[in-house]
From TrEMBL:
This is Rrf2 family transcriptional regulator. Gene3D superfamilies: Winged helix-like DNA-binding domain superfamily/Winged helix DNA-binding domain (1.10.10.10). It comes from the Bacteria. One of its GO terms (cellular component) is cytosol. Pfam families: Rrf2. GO terms for molecular function: DNA-binding transcription factor activity.
Length: 144
């Protein structure tokens, strides 16, 4: 459903948010190890997240990546998805056809539209804060 980069971006954002709650900044190496992503790929994803103001980068000896605590409730999963994958997930055909529209639908168009619309709502209504809280209290995990 999401690209690998988007999956890693979501995982990285949740991990950074969890650490931001605890007043810690995390470096790219820690992030790549925690989310099981190649270091160089992780660094590129983090640059994108900084560019879209989802996370902040602080340079120096005590630097790293963080999310300002006050911003956590306002950062939604949809922002990460759109920053990395764009909005194609909300528009693509369920069968991958180049042309699929209301006037000329594919065989799964109407059923897939319901799923796609539900996904869009979930992404727009789920904050990084609530996912980080679940991670922090052990209700969810980034690693097996």
């Amino acid at each position: 459903m999401f690209s690998k980069a988007c999956e890693y971006g979501i995982r990285a954002s949740i991990f950074i948010a969890k650490n931001s709650f605890e007043g810690k900044r995390v470096n790219p190496r820690e992030i790549s190890e925690e989310i099981n992503s190649p270091y160089a790929f992780t660094a590129k994803i983090l640059q994108t997240l900084v560019k879209y103001n989802i996370i902040q980068s602080v340079r120096g000896a005590h630097g790293g990546f963080e999310i300002i605590k006050e911003d956590l409730p306002n950062i939604k999963l949809s922002q990460i998805v759109e920053a990395i994958d764009g909005d194609i997930i909300y528009e693509g055909c369920g069968l991958g056809l180049d042309k699929c529209e209301e006037q000329h639908p594919c065989p799964v168009h109407d059923k897939f539209k319901i799923i796609r619309d539900s996904l869009k709502e979930m992404l727009k209504n789920t904050s990084i804060e609530e996912l980080a809280i679940d991670l922090q209290r052990g209700a969810s995990f980034l690693k097996i």
